[in-house]
Amino acid sequence: MALIVQKYGGTSVGSPDRIQAVSDRIIETVRQGYQVAVVVSAMGKTTDNLVKLAQEITPAPNRREMDMLLSTGEQVSIALLSMALQAKGQPAISLTGAQVGIVTEAEHSRARILQVKPDRLRRHLDSGQVVVVAGFQGITHSDDLEITTLGRGGSDTSAVALAAALGAERCEIYTDVPGILTTDPRLVPQAQLLEEITANEMLELASLGAKVLHPRAVEIARNYGVPLMVLSSWSDAPGTKVLVPTPQPRSLDGLEITKAVDAVEFDSDQGKVALLRVPDRPGIAAQLFGEIGRQQVDVDLIIQSIHEGNSNDIAFTVVKNLLKQAEAVAEAIAPVLRSQPTAVEEAEVLVEKRIAKIAIAGAGMIGRPGIAANCCDLSRSRDQY
Amino acid sequence: MALIVQKYGGTSVGSPDRIQAVSDRIIETVRQGYQVAVVVSAMGKTTDNLVKLAQEITPAPNRREMDMLLSTGEQVSIALLSMALQAKGQPAISLTGAQVGIVTEAEHSRARILQVKPDRLRRHLDSGQVVVVAGFQGITHSDDLEITTLGRGGSDTSAVALAAALGAERCEIYTDVPGILTTDPRLVPQAQLLEEITANEMLELASLGAKVLHPRAVEIARNYGVPLMVLSSWSDAPGTKVLVPTPQPRSLDGLEITKAVDAVEFDSDQGKVALLRVPDRPGIAAQLFGEIGRQQVDVDLIIQSIHEGNSNDIAFTVVKNLLKQAEAVAEAIAPVLRSQPTAVEEAEVLVEKRIAKIAIAGAGMIGRPGIAANCCDLSRSRDQY
């Protein structure tokens, strides 16, 4: 029998009424002939309230004790959702991270999943129960049953890891938006819903701040070939499908332990043009890059640094053979900028030819500090020897 | 180094401020040279609120899921108290029932403790940490880490069981009253604080409804010779000491599994006098038993049954050779009762000579329904064979 993993976020289980609605949706999925494993977050603002409570005790709570505290939020949700399912005649059982056997690193508050033990889940699923699993939490490998939490994106990560471990047909992420949008609809009302997106595109979007799906979850989905759906828990709209490639066979041990860095790319065919002391007003950058675009000059990286006062430095890189042309445009624009009413100092153009662009790629860097430092350190070593 | 187990109830840890005060008291105990293991309840009204939440989902929640839900309350308390201790420089660690190894029966919502594993507790205590243990909860013996709760008096029971398992010097129960009082001070302002009480007297008081200490906890204290102190968490007053006998050597396995019934006592030297249709007014019973007392008749059991309307039946037993005398008093009083303004029917005296009194003794009956039924059933069998 095919299995679906469904994940419901905090808003989706934010009240007894919402939990009832979620239980109806689960029962509907069971009626369609699926086994269902469900992963839930803590109800609504529970986690925020627990964090606040800890802050009232001490501004710097111990991370192990924070995990002990925060993991209760999901435990409340799984108990209530299981009760709701049972009350409607659907056999169900709630399981904590420890009970499932979601084994993680011993890194409190940001543990990565090492392994999801499928045996107990299978046993309950095969006996006709819906299993309701606490997201965001796991235990360490030791006999001490130390409780860990997964950090940001934790419940998404739990859900996809479960789906991978169980070989689920797909993993459905229910949330309070209709799916993956082209941008944040609260800022840009014209944002469009995407029907489909590849895992790699999603990974890029997620890394750049799209909050609907955490890149950790997308990476597991991609690595293990788990099709993902992002859906609204408030409607039956079709949502967004995240397309995954057929995966290479891969061990389920060390599930979330991937290379931090997939590749380091090096490009020395770059030059930099900097405009210093540009008035800090909306529209200036658009004017500059509009003119550069009209001159058919392809801009690569753009860096804007902030000064105190009313001006910025805007720098951009182009391939070396366009550097002269780009410089000319910048020089032509500088006097215009000087005439701006808010200009306090003279805008000035600087050109730097001896630069290179180094790109470090890899979703494994997310949430792991120090990677950039390591890379810089290595390049320095190379300079020295 | 001597060890003290301290237990703090829900009111004592009801707010961040109260948790800070509790942490100060614990640190003071450590300064006095003790190792300290602490057992805490859920904060204030947490358990009530969780029960309410479950009731909003379904009027008849599954007991396993209730245990999953309710056990989060204590988990929040232990995390916060540990943070408070750590913030003051006192090494501390919180442990759930599962992490300690408080092994119980698989009876959800009313499990008895089978065993408290002392190894992990000892390890943390010997490394200089205060261990903060979640009261009221345990796990079953299976590998499934099923969470159980202990039911009424659960946290007191956890604390005394811990003290027994660790061979603690004493177990201090901190509560919101100054100690054991002779009666409920909300009803009887003259209630007196007891400086000392024996475990057996306490057991009797507790069985009869005194709520400060649960009889389960007192029974463990008595069986394993754990001195108990009942103290106010709001003051430094000396509280009440519960004196325990030197215990018989006793295995710590099956800790709370004791005989339900210690003894069945049988007394056929009894007779019953019943006054039927006594006006239901305060003072009537005092008048009746006052007169009986003046006649030097020792009354044993008193049973008052309620009729619809304005009258009661009052029955009492005496030893057989006083039956005539007791009947005479009752007959003398009956006309007085008939003259009461609220008398609606005639008071009447009945005497029953062929009765026996059976007393079933044993704290193990508490919380275990069906014992009386079993006893009745056995005696019926005896009639039949």
What report would you give on this structure?
Chain A has helices at 16-31, 46-57, 63-87, 97-100, 119-126, 154-166, 199-207, 215-224, 284-294, 323-338, 371-384; strands at residues 3-8, 35-40, 92-95, 102-104, 113-116, 130-134, 137-140, 147-149, 170-175, 196-198, 228-232, 240-243, 263-279, 302-306, 311-319, 348-361. With 385 residues, the first copy, chain A, is an alpha/beta fold. In chain A, strands 3-6-2-1-9-11-12-10 form an eight-stranded mixed β-sheet, sandwiched between helices. The first copy, chain A, has a four-stranded mixed β-sheet with strand order 5-4-7-8. In chain A, strands 14-15-13-16 form a four-stranded antiparallel β-sheet. The longest helix of chain A is centred in the N-terminal third of the chain and has 25 residues, at 63-87. The A-B interface holds A 16, 19-20, 50, 53-54, 56-58, 60-62, 64-66, 68-69, 71-72, 75-76, 78-80, 82-84, 86-87, 93-94, 96, 98-99, 120, 144-147 and B 16, 19-20, 50, 53-54, 56-58, 60-62, 64-66, 68-69, 71-72, 75-76, 78-80, 82-84, 86-87, 93-94, 96, 98-99, 120, 144-147.
